[in-house]
Amino acid sequence: MTPVLRRVVVGVLDTNCWVLHADGDRRALVVDPGDDAPAIAAAVTDLDVVAIVLTHAHFDHVLAAPELAARWQVPVLAHPGDAPVWPDELDVVRRTGFWDAGTATDDLLATTPDRLLPPAGPLWDGRSTPVADGEVLEVGQLRVEVLHTPGHSPGGISLLVGEHVLTGDTLFPGGPGLTGTRLSDFPTIIRSVRRLFELPGGTRVHPGHGADTSIGTERPHLREWVVRGW
Fold this sequence. Notes:
With about 230 residues, the protein is an alpha/beta fold. The chain contains 8 helices and 14 strands. The longest helix has 12 residues, at about 85-95.
């Protein structure tokens, strides 16, 4: 069965929220609802959402999760390795008043600091239904395999369905996701990228931010990423 992907770009860091379903089937997953619950809900009015999946628990991937989970009465799925990440995100807000947007933080604070303020509504409580490496999520006629791809965060996952892989913040055009911050690790993310590079070259990569790419396009550059150290 052919997978269909819809992209809804949301939030201060232009997060790719992905909607995944089989062609001709209403049952769908929503992956990384990072903000703007109304826009995400509007994108799935013709579908029946069965679960929300988080590739990881950074603020820009989860802010709309509580509102949408309550609206659709569906579980939030995440890898248990990311359990410390959301409390750490909240700790940053308590100490600084702002979300930690990684390398974009200074620029945002200098230009539009209000965009890093936590929303007025209820925040996610951090509770989720655990998923494990190798687990297969059956979404109608689709089989979606969970791949544990840590490094950007300890419980980061990618989702493999047919010739498509949703990589969250593990792999982008031009390199792996951000490391060097708390709860991240560069050697770990490189191991995860090596695992993704075992997929066929034609596999389409759909990252957590920005444009799509392919395994075959990115694989030749692994050594240069290792040498540069990011």
